[in-house]
Specification:
Layout (H helix, E strand, L loop, with lengths): L2 H13 L12 H12 L23 E3 L8 E5 L7 E6 L28 H6 L15 E6 L26 E6 L4 E11 L10 E3 H8 L9 E11 L18 H16 L16 H20 L1
Parallel strand pairs: 3-7, 4-6
Antiparallel strand pairs: 1-2, 2-8, 3-8, 4-7, 5-6, 5-8
Length: about 300
């Protein structure tokens, strides 16, 4: 047996333990929207006061944006300035020791680990065998919204935002565009940012989602620093897969994401092809002048007759 064949045989068993996480191409309508938002300087219709941070040492100029809440029925995170969307920290909350657990998101790897996710009770209510909470290694969930345990809107400068107030449902499908607009990953709204830190942060997702965007080097202490990630939340109950619309007991990220792919594609089709307001008729100046001349000519002709 040749040395090369021997090496291949020895290597094959180890390949089985390497996660094969991938993402899909971005459809043209979503790509056009991403490009448009990336070039914008700021959100025109913020749903929250500025005061959110993408990084601990960065500016508090991030907000939840509703520029396309009425036409596409979506909301998203963005900062102030061109190219300022959001980064992606890794959230390790939820189930530990389950399918896919390779230690990259162990309890000690995440400084703010919480034993359960925000919607653990909803996940458990689905009564799926063996699934009592989300699994960061399998479920591509997004941390979206900021909670404050007190009734006050601000606690020492901490900002609150509840996406549900704008029609986003817990465990609804979300679309995440990452890698500079080259990749699309479908996930679910699965957790919220708590007030356990000094600042109100945005831009966080499960290890499964981060790995699909950034590769196997992602971990509880290593996320995506570039602020080019677009987190899209969709409003309405039709965005919720429910107990039977997703494979909550999937053994891998790929298996779970495939189960929500159809719904994700359906929701993305809300976005107009050019990324502008859906149903809006764009009339060129030339056409407007022609219409005016034709209309005026008709009136003048009738007058002279």
């Amino acid at each position: 047996m040749s040395p090369s064949i021997s090496l291949l045989i020895l290597t094959i068993p180890f390949l089985a333990f390497i996660p094969t996480v991938s993402a899909r191409d971005v459809p043209s309508n979503l790509q056009n929207l991403y490009t448009k938002l990336f070039k914008q300087k700021s959100c025109k219709h913020p749903l929250s006061d500025r005061g959110f941070y993408s990084t601990e040492d960065g500016p508090d100029t991030y907000t939840y944006c509703g520029d396309h809440l009425s036409d596409f029925k979506i909301l998203y995170i963005r900062g102030r300035g061109k190219g300022r969307l959001a980064n992606m920290d890794v959230d390790c909350d939820g189930l530990q020791g389950g399918p896919g657990d390779d230690g990259r998101c162990s309890v000690g790897a995440s400084p703010d680990y919480q034993g359960i996710t925000a919607f653990q009770e909803t996940v458990a209510s689905y009564n799926v065998s063996g699934v009592k909470d989300l699994n960061t290694y399998v479920h591509p969930y997004v941390v979206f919204g900021n909670e404050v345990e007190s009734d006050d809107m601000r606690i020492d400068g901490y900002m609150r935002f509840d996406p549900a107030e704008y029609g986003v449902e817990p465990l609804s499908v979300m679309a995440v565009v990452c890698d500079g607009g080259k990749k699309l990953v479908y996930g679910v709204w699965g957790d919220t940012n708590g007030d356990d830190g000094a600042k109100s942060m945005v831009g966080e997702a499960s290890l499964a989602l981060a790995t699909a965007c950034g590769g196997i080097e992602m971990s509880g202490s290593n996320g995506i620093g570039e602020e080019d990630v677009l987190y899209l939340a969709f409003t309405g109950t039709e965005a919720v897969p429910g107990a039977k619309g997703a494979k909550w007991d999937a053994g891998s990220f790929e298996e779970f994401e495939r189960s929500i792919e159809g719904l994700g594609d359906q929701l993305v089709r809300r976005i107009a092809e050019d990324g502008s307001a859906s149903g809006t008729v764009r009339v060129s100046w030339g056409l407007m002048v022609w219409m005016f001349v034709a209309l005026a000519g008709g009136h003048l002709g009738a007058y002279w007759i």
